Write the structure tokens for this entry.
Amino acid sequence: MQSFGGPWTLLKLNVLDKYLNFYVTAMQRKPFRLCYFDAFAGSGNIDIKDIGPIPGSALKAIDYPFDKYFFIEKSEDYAHRLDQNIIVKSKNKNINYEIIIGDCNELLQKINSFQWYKNYWRGVIFLDPYAMELKWDSLESIAKTEAFDVWYLFPLSAMNRLMRRDGNIEESHRAIINDLLGTIDWEEEIYYESPQLSLFGEQDRERVHVTEIEKYVIKRLKTIFPGVSDKSKLLRNPVNNSPMFILCFAVSNPSPKAIKISLKIADHILTHT
């Protein structure tokens, strides 16, 4: 069992739970086959400090009647545990699932090699990366499928640790942020010149407020997805109120009707959870 997370973990799982319930209900009379992707599936169960063990996103997803489930996990040990947990929870019901052991980015960047949209597949992808592992290229590949609704837990705290407040960022860290955000121009919007001069008379740089970074992340997602919720949720550590993650929602389906319905429900869930 994996030990990590906190109250924010319960919140993100609650949001996912509500959306999956809406999604399978809304799609049950549509002429599509439905699939669910969990790109960082883990072992299935989570042991949260001061809360205890709970089922993770992968095990929650099999409560909903998707035609196919894809679980990506790079750890063979976690993948094996997940398989056992699915067998136990499903009680030998005929669930069509595949656990893929490998690097998430390598696998997701190939996701649009299959014509999901034209073959009448639709689905939901949950992206809850370990630290800053998810690359922007993977998001672009998902967007090109035109078939998936995406929940993305953006690693704000991990990124902020690499973004020094004074803007003096190590080149190796800058490269990681470039891969995360898919651009080299992020510094122009995340940093500004301080009105105060340094001890040596030089103009210092300062990082914008966290809410501005949240808006910037949503702005970036809108460059590749036709529909992105403006109601993203900033998840904080309740102990010190520090920002941890941004829970984002995006729609890859270009249909205005699909975008309108999905955003309406996602906005409601994000606002009232």
Q: What stands out?
A: The chain has a mean pLDDT of 93. The longest helix spans residues 7-27. The domain at 2-155+228-236+246-272 is CATH 3.40.50 (Rossmann fold). The radius of gyration is 19 Å.
